[in-house]
Design brief:
By secondary structure, the protein is mainly beta. It is built from 1 helix and 6 strands. Strand 3 and strand 4 form a beta hairpin.
Length: 85
């Protein structure tokens, strides 16, 4: 299951209190693939689908400060995600 999180820049998350991070951690525990983008990355083109121009597939590291690694970065249609949060 691919989950796309539309959020503030993930580099600035305060993981000890951020609810989006808590949802990401639980989704990863359940085996979901995590994607992240910012609201500014979302675009709609007439006759096309809504896409996140810069979606990043991430893996959680378990470290407090460097808490994620980017596995892939690409354009992702929201319809191709299992859910958008």
């Amino acid at each position: 299951m691919d989950l796309l999180f539309v959020a503030d820049p993930i580099e600035h998350f305060k993981t000890y209190k951020d609810s989006t991070f808590a949802m990401m951690r639980e989704a990863a525990r359940r085996g979901c693939r995590l994607w992240a983008c910012e609201a500014a990355d979302l675009v709609w083109r007439r006759g096309a689908r809504v896409v996140a121009r810069r979606a990043r597939c991430i893996a959680l590291t378990g470290h407090e400060h460097d808490w994620f690694n980017v596995l892939q970065e690409r354009e992702l249609a929201l319809a191709d995600a299992s859910a958008v949060l």
